[in-house]
Design brief:
It contains six helices and two strands, in the order ααααβααβ. By secondary structure, the protein is mainly alpha-helical. The protein has a two-stranded antiparallel sheet with strand order 1-2.
């Protein structure tokens, strides 16, 4: 693909922040009745540990759906960037979108390991971008 402008790390960070806020609100909405009943910090920590898998699943579903459907999560939409297939320029398939989301969450769980690749890559690709064969571009 030629004539594309790769998204800056700043724009990607803005999209990341917006998306995390949205998914966090969804998590809070789902568990609101249980969260307001927590009375101590220990109860809160135990709750978060017990239901962290739900947050992980929400993130994978959120990112997979929006990237496969439109190439952009809500955060990417506001940052005016899009994840596309690096060869065809089209939206990622569902399977590659799910793969991207899973690798992204693994990297996020390990000190954002997969994200650091963007700082040294000419296309600003993270490891989850490379794994799913996509690039994030300005729209």
């Amino acid at each position: 693909m030629s004539n594309v402008e790769y998204a800056s790390i700043g724009k990607r960070a803005i999209a990341f922040f917006i998306d995390d806020i949205i998914v966090s609100f969804l998590y809070i909405i789902i568990f609101y009745d249980q969260i307001i009943k927590l009375k101590s910090q220990d109860e809160m920590v135990a709750f978060i540990v017990e239901y962290s898998w739900v947050l992980l699943l929400l993130k994978v579903i959120y990112h997979s759906f929006f990237i496969a459907y439109n190439g952009a999560t809500i955060g990417k939409y506001f940052a005016k960037i899009k994840a596309i297939d690096e060869d065809s320029g089209k939206n990622l398939t569902w399977s590659r979108s799910i793969l991207r989301a899973i690798v992204r969450e693994i990297g996020e769980s390990f000190f954002y390991f997969t994200f650091w690749f963007a700082f040294v890559d000419s296309k600003r690709q993270t490891l989850h971008d490379k794994t799913s064969k996509c690039v994030v571009i300005n729209v």
